[in-house]
Every structure is written in C-alpha cells, then in structure tokens.
C-alpha cells in the first residue's frame, strides 16, 4: 500500500526520492508524487500512473532542492487521478503533506472545515487532515509541529504523515500511528521511508518510529517526541539487509527470483534452529513460553491471505503431533468479532510484512484480554514483531514480488519447527517420528531445488492452459491449504478466476462446474489420502475435466488418469506442503507472463496491507 519517502541533507533530494519511490513500487500503487522545498517555497509534482510516468511528466522542469518528500498512492478515498494523488497542498499553499493510512473521522473534520469556508481540490481524507492542521496553526498562531500535535489528538485512524512547508527550511515533520515509518541516519542527512529499502544504499543505521511519536528531521538533527511533547532518545539499529537483496539479480521478475531463492530461504529459516543429527530444535521464543504451550488446550492462529494459508497447514500439523485443539482465524474478520480469549491463551500470529493492519488490531485486542502472542514474522522490527511477546523470525529475506512465495515456505518451516518443539516437550510425538521429521525437514532445500530444476515442464503446462477462464484447485489434508494457496496465486498473478476446495468437498457443489474447458489442479502427493484422491481425479475425468496433478515422483496411478503431471520428490505428508506449493507458484507465474501481465505488481494489490 501507499509508500512514503523523504530526504533532507546536502544532496539533491529529487533523485533520491524518485529512486526511493521505485524501491517501494512493490507495495502496490496507482499514482505518485513529489514535493520539494525550493527557495523557501514548496513545489509539487504529481501524476496518476507509475513513478516513470511522473518522471516523464516532470520532464525538464526545475527539481532542485535538498529537502523533499515523495509518495506512491494506493487509492482509498477518491479514485486514482492526478488531483487525488499525493502530495497535497494546504489552502494557503504553504504546507505540503503525504499520508499513508486512513483518517476514519475525516468526514466530521471536513464538515467542520466546510463551515469555516474551506473548499477542497481532491476527494481525499489526506487533504482534509492537512487543512485541519493548517486551521489549527492559524487559530493558535503556533508552529507547524505544535499544530500537528494538536490535530493528531482529534484524529482517529491510522497514519504516517510527512510534512514540509515554507517556514521550516530543510525540515521534514513526521508522525506515525499504525503505519510503518523508518528513518535512516546518514552524515548530515536523513532519509525517511515506509521501510528501509529506499535508504539501503546510503545508510545501514535506522530508527524505527513508534506509534504516537513525532519526528522533526533536519540534515544534522533528528528529534523524536511523543504526542505529549516529551523528547525521546532515538534508538539507532543496524540493518542487516544488503542492496542485492532488493534487486532482481538477473531474473525477469522479482517473483521468479523469489521462487528460485526458496532452497536458500528455506535453509535460512532453519539455520541455527534445526540440528537433525543431534535431534534438537533451538527456538528461544518458544522455549520462553514452553510451559504455556505445553499446557495450552487451545491454540489460535491469526493471519491474513497467504499467511492464513500457512496457518491452515499448521493447524493440521499441531493437531496431529501436539494433540491440541487449533483454530485458524482470518484476522480481517476476527478483529471485528468478540472472540473468547482469556488470560494465558496462546495466539500464534503469522505475517510476512508484520504491518498488516487487520492482523495488528486482532492481536492488540487479544493482548488486551491477556493472551500470549507468539509472532511468526518476516520483517525484523516490524509492528507485529514488536507487539508479540515472543516468536520466531522467518528469515526469508526481503520479498518484493507482490504475490508472496518464499515468505510462505519459510512460514511453513518455522511453524513446523514450533509444532515439533512443542510436541517433543509435551511428549505427544514418538522419538522415532520426531527424528524422522527433523531429517525430512533438513532435506527440504535440496528437494525444492530438484523441483525448480524442472521448471521448463511447468512453463509448457502454463502455455497449454493460459487461456482458461476458470481453474479449480483441489487437495486433501495438509494439501487442502496448498490448493487454496495455488488458487490465490493464480488469481493474483493471471486474473483468472480460481477456486481452492477440499477435494472431498467437491461433490457437494463445485463438481457442477466441471466440463471439458475446466482445468482442475489436484495436489495429490502420496499421503494417507492417496487412494481417495485417485477416486476424486477419476470423478473429474468422468466429467471430461482437464486434470493437472502435482504428484510424488513415480506415481503411475495418477499419471495415467491425469492430462498433465508435475512431480515432486517423495516427502513426509507433514513437510510436503513446502514442496507442493512451489510448482503452483511457478504455474501462476508462467501463466501471468504468458498473458503479458505485470506479475510483480498485479492490479489493485498491495504488498503491505496497512489499511483495514
Ligand atoms: C498473497 C499475499 C497476501 C498476504 C496478506 C497478509 O500473495 O501476499 O495475501 O499474505 O496480505 O500479509 P502479511 O503476511 O504481510 O500479514
């Protein structure tokens, strides 16, 4: 969702801000804009479309200035258009603002401003808040910083705001609540961003701004304050991401690069934790809450989208080896319910970005009720990581393709490790099975590489089915969630309608869809349900459906009755989802590419869903 960038220092701001916006393109957006301080005045440039369209539109205009802010907008209030793009200018023309988030009470603030004679140039909540701040500044004859502080006390919703104005040269004023803000610290310069990617090539020292904090940022000074105007000492952290991690590295798309990184990222997610020979799993966060996890008679997993699918796989694993009741909840729905959560209940929260607004609110609510929150999060230092009592990072590295791939397999690894550790501590798994599963886990990176080496055959299948109007994805047991994930990936990347369903449930409705034009993808590896899924495939073939099966290598029975097969190496059913998902990621990718679509930035989607 919206991306923000800021720079104040001794260099030219425009190229840094534009480059930063390009680094944030992966978040998803529909328009872009920049505001610069030029000779004591703020100047705006904005355009619907891509950052490249903005650059083209600016052309040879004067973009000099050493302080600037930039924005990529993902429309919430008002359609994507030039006039709704950020930055916005206040009524006096003296203050420019960019905003990521939603001002929930903007309608009320807008009618107050209407009564005072304000008119608006856009349909956005951002312009309302900006004029509200300016009105407070005029009425109280105070500084912009003070006016912002007063205004924020009246505002409900989520925001990261950056302001520059005519009266505070070389200064960016920022505030955050519920949306991420990182400040990079350089020599006589500061960088601001929705994440660290816009500043990576300039500095590795960053400050993560917390909710309800304001920052007054000048080239040689960073002042952090809370909303009560008390100064806070900035806590500078060192980033451990390299620039190469956010570049394509020779691949056509970030999505493909990230799919191919999985043997490494899966290994990274186990590194230092799994020692199959010694039979140990080291996870300090889990160890810290071992008593609660062993005693828990109910575990609730909360997540959205692909992370929710990882939760669904984990449900089956925990149930099987830890013998505990597990509920998996979509955070976007769960947050509005009145769930039964009591002190000491264990909630596992899964999030790649660590910034998903729905997930944040869901766990904040649970935390208030006394739940213990264990985070399975990819982005170090993110809001969800900080809100969690303990947890385990997934270590998948920076994921830029909007459709989540390597983050998902890393989530599966970490959740499996947690389940195995709990099962071992609890004594709910036999020693022999425990040891076998550790060895199975250890072998996953190599098996993932085996699948990736056969990507050409998946490309051919993609070519064959790329014009289908609908797809059905079916799986049983552990692979049911993979059917859901396969269908989600296809929808996201190719805009083909796809449904994931439990294979056994098919006969209760979806089978009516089957005809000779419907490709049905079966996730049908050798597991406890194998015979049953063979019957399900036959049922589809009897109705002339086209069957693509993901099978265990050498499975003659399914090969014979399928139109196309994609093999994976033999693997225990508990770890198989880490492998079966990979061909489905590739299938979506190749179909998207064959249809000439922008697979890294699919329409309407955002990488980090920071609004409700
Ligand atoms: C799909 C995808 C989304 C995210 C969802 C949750 O490819 O990426 O469905 O999984 O928006 O995001 P996180 O995991 O960042 O909380």
Task: List key phrases describing it.
612 residues, alpha/beta, eight-stranded antiparallel sheet, seven-stranded antiparallel sheet, 21 helices, binds fructose -6-phosphate
Mean pLDDT, rounded to whole units?
93
Largest sheet: 8 strands, antiparallel
Number of helices, counting only DSSP H or I runs of 4 residues or more? 21
Strand content: 15-25%
**If you compute it from the alpha carbons, what radius of gyration comes out, rounded to the nearest whole angstrom?**
25 Å
Q: Which strand order does the major sheet show? A: 3-2-4-1-10-9-11-15
Helix-residue proportion: 25-40%
Indicate the structural class: alpha/beta
Count of distinct strands: 27
**Overall body shape:** globular
Instruction: Tell me the span between the first and last alpha carbons.
Output: 11 Å
Low-confidence stretches: none
Question: What does the model show?
Answer:
It is a single chain. This protein is 37% helix and 24% strand. It is an alpha/beta fold and 612 residues long. It has an 8-stranded antiparallel beta sheet with strand order 3-2-4-1-10-9-11-15, covered by helices on one side. Helix 18 links the parallel strand 23 and strand 24. It is globular and about 80 Å long. It starts with a strand and ends in an 18-residue tail after the last helix. The model has no long low-confidence stretch (mean pLDDT 93). Fructose -6-phosphate binds next to helix 10 and helix 18.
